[in-house]
Amino acid sequence: MKLRTLRPGDADALLAFELANRAWFESKVEARPPGFYSGAGVAHHIADCLAKYEVGTMHPCLLVDDDDSILGRTNLRDIDAASQRAEIGYRIAQHACGRGLAGLALRHMLAQAYSRWQLASVEAYVTVNNPISAHILAKQGFQLVGLEPAHAEVAGQRLDCHHYRHLRV
Ligand SMILES: CC(C)(COP(=O)(O)OP(=O)(O)OC[C@H]1O[C@@H](n2cnc3c(N)ncnc32)[C@H](O)[C@@H]1OP(=O)(O)O)[C@@H](O)C(=O)NCCC(=O)NCCS
Predict the structure, then answer these.
(1) Distance from Cα 111 to the centre of ligand 1, integer Å
(2) I need a surface site. Which of 7, 84, 86, 92 has the fewest CB within 10 A?
(3) DSSP secondary structure string, the chain?
(4) Span from the CA of 97 to the centroid of ligand 1 (angstroms)
(5) How many other β-carbons are positioned within 10 Å of the β-carbon of residue 39?
(6) Hey, what domains does the chain have and what are their CATH numbers?
């Protein structure tokens, strides 16, 4: 398996991945708009990600198996060269969880953040209802910064989020 940058040709596989795991993801993170879940919606999403990648404000990656099937996604978003910060997000297919893939994805993106994008820190927000994700962040060296009240809406509930930060060493 490997991590690689998202491509325009990923639309069909990405739609299948997001649909297959929709209920799983929406139980843990904010739901995507309903218009996302169509060929046109995902093609638009990919074009938007790659436009941001072109100008250096986003790094969208897929975690793929040896046959290039999608196991997960991870993105650096809101890359800001001035403040040398970005925010990380990640999601792993439910059937592939518990194999260390999120840890792998985080290590890869932290290396990209500091070598390629020359950042000084990476931010992460995790709801108070997602202790596994908080555990993964802490294991990769993220430090708890504080609590952001009502920062996310998950499954119809407004939730507080823990704000984590990883600093370049
Ligand atoms: C959170 C998520 C990314 C984890 O992915 P994963 O590939 O299963 O994670 P890993 O296998 O790398 O690590 C799982 C860790 O959680 C631990 N864990 C498993 N069940 C746990 C539980 N109930 N409570 C606490 N920790 C738990 C595992 O032991 C492992 O830790 P270890 O490496 O110290 O043994 C995945 O569940 C997911 O995509 N969830 C939906 C989207 C989401 O929540 N994204 C994160 C938003 S901040």
Answers:
(1) 20
(2) 7
(3) -EEEE--GGGHHHHHHHHHHTHHHHHTTSPPPPGGGSSHHHHHHHHHHHHHHHHTTSEEEEEEE-TT--EEEEEEEEEEETTTTEEEEEEEE-GGGTTSSHHHHHHHHHHHIIIIIS--SEEEEEEETT-HHHHHHHHHTT-EEEEEEEEEEEETTEEEEEEEEEEE--
(4) 7
(5) 10
(6) 2-167 (3.40.630.30)
What is the token pair recorded at 99? 């194999």
Unique residue bearing structure tokens 């290039």: 68
Minimum CA distance residue for ligand 1 atom 33: 100
- Rounded distance, CA 91 to CA 110, Å? 16
Give 130-143 pLDDT, tens digit per residue. 999 999 999 999 99
Tell me, yes or no, if the pTM score tops 0.90: yes
> From ligand 1's centre to the CA of 114, what distance in Å?
24
Dist. CA 77–CA 6, nearest whole Å: 13
Span 105-114, pLDDT tens digits: 999 999 999 9
